[in-house]
């Protein structure tokens, strides 16, 4: 066995002060991988050591919204650590949330990660968005009772 080749197809999404990364394992000897090492930076030259994980995904938190970040990943097996992927760039952005409801009722909203819940004051009626993913463009989802949730990068 030898050190692994680089993982491939690194992708991600920018969120409020964080980036969610995903990648595919090396195309050979993937079963021998014991860890993935993440590095990131703002210029593609100087790197900050990020987390070491066993999964094919990770969230990098504490980032500055509106700043372009470079990310790369390497794989480790019992023989050592292989080369890094080609860097990919992602920019974290604050998300703007606007809510509308049937009629002219104000809404109370709460957000936890990618779950959005909202209801009209004094009402038991509630709409919930689960596993919502916003890209760089406008994203609107309507629930079954007529509430609408719109997310757009700030």
Describe the structure.
This protein is mostly beta strands and 154 residues long. It folds into two domains: 83 residues, Immunoglobulin-like; 59 residues, no CATH class. Strands 3, 4, 6, 7 and 8 form a five-stranded antiparallel β-sheet that branches. The protein has a three-stranded antiparallel β-sheet with strand order 1-2-5, with no helix packed on it. A hairpin with a 6-residue loop joins β3 and β4. About 29% of the residues have low confidence.
Task: Give the gist of this structure.
This protein is mostly beta strands and about 150 residues long. It is built from no helices and 14 strands. The chain has strands at about 10-15, 20-25, 35-40, 50-55, 55-60, 70-75, 80, 90, 95-100, 110, 115-120, 125-130, 140, 150-154.
Descriptive key words:
154 residues; mainly beta; Immunoglobulin-like; 2 domains; five-stranded antiparallel sheet; three-stranded antiparallel sheet; 50% strand; elongated
Low-confidence stretches: 101-145
Under CATH at level 1, the class of the largest domain stands as: Mainly Beta
Helix percentage: under 10%
The Cα radius of gyration reads: 20 Å
> What name does the CATH topology of the largest domain carry?
Immunoglobulin-like
Average pLDDT across residues? Answer: 75
Order of helices and strands: EEEEEEEEEEEEEE
Number of helices: 0
Oligomer: single chain
Number of strands: 14
Question: What is the 3D form?
Answer: elongated
């Amino acid at each position: 066995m030898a050190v692994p080749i680089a993982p491939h197809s690194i992708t991600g999404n920018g969120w409020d002060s964080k980036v969610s990364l995903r990648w595919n394992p090396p195309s050979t000897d993937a079963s021998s991988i014991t860890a993935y090492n993440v590095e990131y930076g703002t210029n593609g030259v100087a790197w900050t050591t990020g987390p070491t994980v066993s999964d094919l995904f990770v969230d990098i938190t504490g980032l500055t919204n509106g700043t372009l970040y470079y990310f790369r990943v390497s794989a480790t097996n019992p023989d050592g650590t292989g080369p890094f992927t080609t860097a990919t760039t992602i920019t974290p952005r604050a998300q703007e949330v606007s809510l509308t409801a049937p009629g002219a009722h104000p809404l109370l909203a709460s957000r936890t990660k990618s779950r959005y819940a909202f209801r009209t004051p004094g009402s038991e009626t509630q709409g919930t968005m689960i596993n919502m993913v916003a890209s760089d463009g406008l994203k609107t989802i309507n629930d079954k009772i007529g509430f609408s949730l719109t997310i757009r990068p700030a």
